[in-house]
Q: What sequence folds into this?
């Protein structure tokens, strides 16, 4: 008589590795923040066009002065207000971030597009930073929110693409990459303080 063979214990299937959670969160949060500030800036710009005496919501003092920046040609580089670019691109980034967080696997071409888009945004943002500090001599608080968002999105998209090998070559192992991003932000803060030393000293009560 055959001895019944006990059923082998079921082995739980390995859980899939969580890929892209960080980049998904940054795209979602950065995209939403960028879209909101772009909308606010556009509304203020339209109000300023309708009434030259209008004071934008982010004009706080002579340095933090969106109104000063909105009156320059740099604020409409392509012939229309720069916030229009943000309203056309930030929601796309937020939607893709939501898909990544929802577990959707984005095709390679989407990651290529994100890389190209965030790189273009990065170059534009740094051009605006140079113009604000060296030419216009004023800062736009809402614009700085967009700066932070674009730099973070570029950084996380690039790190993700390098880790996944999306950009070609073998996947790279990148750890503690957040230090690089923090150093990048610190460099911008240092540039702002160096440009407006008296204003920065006043902020900290010196």
A:
């Amino acid at each position: 008589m055959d001895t019944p063979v006990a059923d082998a214990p079921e082995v739980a299937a390995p859980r899939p590795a969580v890929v892209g959670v960080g980049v998904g969160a940054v795209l979602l949060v950065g995209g939403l923040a960028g879209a909101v500030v772009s909308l606010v800036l556009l509304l203020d710009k339209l109000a300023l066009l309708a009434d030259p005496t209008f004071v934008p919501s982010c004009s706080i003092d002579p340095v933090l002065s969106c109104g000063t920046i909105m009156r320059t040609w740099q604020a409409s580089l392509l012939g229309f207000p720069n916030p229009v670019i943000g309203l056309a691109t930030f929601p796309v980034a937020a939607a893709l971030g939501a898909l990544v967080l929802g577990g959707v696997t984005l095709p390679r071409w989407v990651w290529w597009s994100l890389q190209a888009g965030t790189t273009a945004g990065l170059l534009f943002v740094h051009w605006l930073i140079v113009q604000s500090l060296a030419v216009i001599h004023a800062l736009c608080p809402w614009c700085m929110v967009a700066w932070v968002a674009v730099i973070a999105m570029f950084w996380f998209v690039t790190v993700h693409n390098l880790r996944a090998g999306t950009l070609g070559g073998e996947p790279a192992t990148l750890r503690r990459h957040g230090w690089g991003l923090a150093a990048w932000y610190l460099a911008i803060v240092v540039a702002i303080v160096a440009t407006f030393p008296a204003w920065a000293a006043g902020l900290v009560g010196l």
